[in-house]
Amino acid sequence: MLHHRAFVKKSKQGKVQKVVREHYLREDIACGSFKCEKCDRAVAKLEREAAEYVVIDTNVGLQSIDFLENEAVDNVIVPSTVLQETKKNNLSVYNRLRNLCAAKDRKFYVFSNENHRDTYVTAAEGESPNDRNDRAIRVTALWYMKEVPGTRILLLTNDAENRRRAKSEGILAASTREYAEARKATNPMLVDLVVASSVGDSNMDIGAEGGRNSKRQRIYEEHKLMSDITVGLKQGRLHQGTLRVNMYNPFEGYVSSESMEEEILICGRANMNRAFDGDVVAVELLPEQEWRVPSRNLPSSLAVNGEDRSVAEEEHDEGGLEEEVGAGVAQINPGEDYGGAPITTDSSGRHPCGRVVGIIKRNWRTRGYCGSLRPIAKEKLQMGMISCLFVPVQRKFPIIRIATRQAAQLMDQRILVSIDTWEVDSLYPSGHYVRALGPIGDKDTETEVLIIENDINTAPFSVEVHACVPALPWSVSNDDLSDPNRQDLRHLSICSVDPPGCKDIDDALHCRKLDNGNLEIGVHIADVTHFLKPSTAMDEEAALRSTTVYLVQRRIDMLPKPLTEDICSLRAGVDRLAFSVLWEMTPHAEIVKFDVTKSIISSKAALTYAEAQSRIDDRRLHDEVTESLREMNRIARILRQRRADAGALSLASPEVKFELDTETHDPLDVGMYQVRETNQMVEEMMLLANITVAKQIEAAFPSCAVLRRHPTPTPKMFESLIKACNAVGISLDPSTSKTLAISLDTAVKPDDAFFNKMVRIMATRCLTQAVYFRSGDVSKEEYRHYGLATPIYTHFTSPIRRYADVLVHRLLMAAIGLRILPDNMTDRSRMKAIVDNMNYRHRNAQMAGRASVGLHTLIFFKDRPTVADARIIRVRTNGLIVFVPKFGIEGPVYFHSNSEEKGGDGKVQFALDDQTQVARSLDGSLRFQVFDTVTVSIRVEESQGHRRKLVLALCQGENKTGQPMTMG
User: Fold this and answer.
1) Domains of the chain and CATH, by start
2) In terms of pTM, does the model score above 0.85?
3) Which stretches make up the RNB domain (predicted)?
């Protein structure tokens, strides 16, 4: 049956167009029940033995996905109307719902009601799209009542009006709460998963009176309607931007808006007005007399351990630290840093302040928030369903109120909670319990927390993905050997140089002398795209994951292990497929010519950086691999100097290395990672390959090449570092990468060997983040990579662990005529989504790795209180931020004295000189300046509810009463 659907739409040019589409209706669509004799059993999922089938509406699909994922909910019919609307409103929830429907162990069936002759409905005159969709779902429920007689059909909806209409039409209907309450005897946990409609009245329906409790007073202002926001933005009264919340205070943040030169400071609970980090908000500026100076205090010591937050502290603590902690640093609170980029103030030092008046786009996580319950009185734990306060592990998120029957069992657990709503009459957002993660402080539990917090996908690869992987054992085939487009390079003395224990080896190198006196240098990269075909299940999964994630004790792969550790890995002594870049160079590293080719290689050695360095340094060794390494190292020195002369930055990162117990994987030792000359050698070769390939693919595909750029930092980003250096007589000029490089080279103190590295570490944090992009999306001037001082750059050398490199390999194959470029790589909107996801996943992988370092640092120091030297990298009026070079630890130290423990107030007042970066005690007995060395104690403390935290305290320096200064 053919049906025509007509509607009007407005084009991007503003023209109104009438669109008529053919809509085919069928009557042979299966109901999906094993009870039905007419339907195809091959597609059936609904059990014959089930007494009840559940039909869900869009409301439940969108808002109760955690509820649906519980195994107690099954034999569920998902109308295609629900899937379509869910996809339109929330892609993340849609994917979870699709996975439920696809899971073989779950009984979720998608019924194509929009294509069935008996269940398709047209919109009545004056009927809204939502009302039409609700009616379509009720018609589906009625159809099932006729199709499978004898089976109870239940419409599950949290919309009170939809339930009322369903019951008037003879359909059995219930809310998720009613459904859960009816089953709490056998599945008590189901009640906890019910979406909270409002705090204070958990039985209130979403559709009832807007979900408000009329007995409570309003705490927040109502958000403006979208129509009012649009008018305000056009008139310039409102400003749109994304809210970035202070890492230690959920009621202080900044909004960057294209309509304002300065960032807008949002301070206090009322002005934040229920906005979350990442929300796109509409902001109204406060009168200038209400603008304020940003805090120069460290966050309170309680803030370092987010779970110790009291209600009073959360309401009144508006302090925050605005400096960023660098990658690889073991921090006091794993996974968090100390704020964001520097802010701009007016000439008086006051900052533009505003208030949130509307939410344009919510950023509540569909995956939920990790944390724990605030301890409550034992007698209250025995009261059945009780209201509890949940404290997220990340302090930038506010406390969340949930209702649960399991409070006693969950009190010492990390749990996952989802947010449902935040009403104007509720101090806190309301949410629901999703699941327990494990005991607080347990290594596996805390690792699971950091994985969830950073949105890392750890799900096993599907059967469809594994089906794309060649069977093991795998070897190079005769077809590969006879391929005219693949060079046989197995005779070359190729080797790999990697960290110890590396199994996913995706690059190898060689260098040999040519008959004409020149050199041939080769970089050989695993030929992942030979196995990873476009638009396959494995390719789609790799695009979603985008990167391999490296934790201290674990690797979370982008691709299945048979590929990463065997088939693609360039292991020693086996033939492997590669994508090679070969340069002919003069002995002075001048490139004569280069070639890019598919190849077959056989690595002669898989070396660690230490082993390669040992070979180079041992003058008794003259084998081909060693001589290759020596000559390549010599060339790398020349290339490195040439880049430095062009303005490339030589920065430093306080990367931490752990020695782990082979059985428990607990840390046995921790220290700064040692960088050898072989590290720099490999880096230079990879940079050369990446730059060479970037030029090649951009020339061939100027509008769709996948490149990587590093935006030039603004002068404001270096202000604090310039002040710190000026205070100790060092001049820093960041106007260009070259002037900055020269400044860093001259930033030395003869009596302080670590000073230069400290400055380089701090300079790293002043820079913007490098990002992936499509060449056609920005001007050529914006291609530049500031840190590397190169006009063009990409990632080609790690396709086993980065999806960006996979895309670059496909571009390169097309550029040299080996393959046709896949259609989706010229689709601008699709590629923008892929590139955005790559940047998001890359950032998350960095944060997860950093959090893992912090977690293992906490475990290491649990029974090892230690004293060590630290360097001051920031001074504040109430404390310092210090860096401990020996362990790579960074964190706050507060100005308190032990007199507090003896009845005194424990406060030591300090004055901060912002120009000289000096903090002086008001009594003149103490003075601290950036870059000073202090001695600190490092220990782990247990706080309220058995929460552990790493504590740094000053051991050096006395106040005038002779009491040592310590962290409170």
Assistant:
1) 2-195 (3.40.50.1010), 226-451 (2.40.50.690), 463-708+774-851 (no CATH), 713-767 (no CATH), 861-966 (2.40.50.140)
2) no
3) 486-818
